[in-house]
Design goal:
The protein is α+β, with helices and mostly antiparallel strands and 154 residues long. Helix content is 32%, strand content 27%. It has one domain.
Length: 154
């Protein structure tokens, strides 16, 4: 995706979410030497995210996480039924990657699995709440991330 297209997409996402939600949206070329997980970590670190053991997820879970985050934001994040427009925006992000894409998140399942309504998220930004998806395929790496609340120094 060209820079101008990515900026248009980020603008659409920012206009959709509550004004106090900070949106990180990025897509970069992946070097052949990076595996999928390292590529995902690289793009996260380029935005100042804390290092962590990113949890791998499937595309359906990535879609559910992004749709829910777009609908309710990071502060009140639960996995629920996303708004129709949120589903379209989530699908648009996921379609930027090829079928070999791998997805990662900071969302931890609560109870018996990711499909349960309540989840917890490991904070990776300097903000009080954050949630999102990192993605990498054979040629690209990117993220769609949402942060909200007070920013701390650490």
């Amino acid at each position: 995706m060209a820079g101008a297209e990515l900026e248009r997409y980020k603008t659409k996402v920012q206009a959709f979410v509550r004004p106090i939600v900070r949106v990180y949206c990025d897509m970069q070329l992946k070097t052949e030497t990076l595996n999928y997980r390292d590529a995902a970590m690289h793009v996260a670190q380029s935005h100042g995210f804390h290092e962590m053991d990113w949890r791998p997820i499937g595309e359906d879970d990535a879609r559910a996480i992004l749709g829910s985050a777009l609908t309710v934001g990071p502060e009140y994040f639960t996995l629920g039924t996303p708004d129709a427009r949120a589903r379209v925006l989530a699908d648009e992000f996921l379609s930027m990657f090829s079928r070999d894409a791998r997805f990662f998140t900071n969302v931890l399942p609560a109870g018996h699995g990711l499909g349960r309504p309540m989840v917890s998220c490991r904070r990776v930004t300097r903000f009080e709440w954050d949630v999102g998806v990192l993605a990498a395929d054979s040629q690209h790496m990117g993220l769609l991330w949402f942060a909200e609340g007070e920013e701390s120094a650490t």
